[in-house]
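sanity check both lines:
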Amino acid sequence: MTDELPSISVVVIGRNEGERLARCWHSVRDADYPPERMELIYVDSDSTDDSCSIAAQLGAKVIRIRPGRPCAAAARNAGLRSVSYDLVHFLDGDTILDPAWLRKAVQAIADPTAACVFGRCEELAPESSIYNFWAHHDWYVPPGPAETCGGNALFKREVLDWAGGFDESLIAGEEADLCYRIRTRRGLTIFSLREPMIRHDINMKRFSQYWKRSMRTGHAYAEVGGRHPGLRHWRAARWRNLLYTCILPGAGVLSVVLSSWWPLVFACAWIATAITRNAIRLRKQVGSMGGALLFSSHHYLCKVPATLGQCSYWLRSWLHRSPQPLIEYR
């Protein structure tokens, strides 16, 4: 019933999204939700295109920010400070909202133990590049209580206000930081739903983009994982990244020292076995063994730039250097 639906503030953030932003706003306005119960807010991070005029023409309140150190956290916080309602849904400007999602999300977040809910995220065109394919499957989160959400999720405003919003000192991993504080200090739950929420348009075509995005992920593992030891998955990921990155160079050095190919052969066989075992585990999720092997190969490849991102953060911290600026992959 429409009378029973709560009001929602929808905060879209973006920078130079252009037509993708228009597509995002059209999906919000076309959602199966009473328009009079939706507040539309767009936070722009110093775009040089017509993003602000696009959002304004589609009925959104436009907030322009120019942070000294651009990051998604600063944009989301700017939107949070302007919302009027008790439920806040964050969206990135390169997404398309599923028309049925909002009704399902407000029903789920009515649970008094829930702080945040999010649904399935899928890539708009996973077949257009290998990087899109990898991202498409990276988004998968099993339904149920989750460790963290992504940037697209529905929150209770009261919980966000209690937490002080997102940490603007973080260039990545701000969602994991926020969710960890909510889970451990408020005892509330982050819920992943099986229903579709958004289609995402990563539009990644070049290896250099993939490399930078993976570096940013590694930076987040090091900074947020170091800040919160309770994020056991993130802590384990840091050491796996280091192990897999070092095994081939280490085996190569050992082969030279021993004048034997066997250390290098053993290392390659070990990595191939790990990729195959992971693919078998992922086969049902991906849909085919060939696709699972391709996806599992990404799990190894991305560890190299992720390790560089981790080491960059650790080195800056050790040398007391200024924080890393935003690592942009577009």
Remarks:
- The radius of gyration is 21 Å.
- Residues 148 and 180 are 7 Å apart (CA to CA).
- Residues 232-319 form one domain.
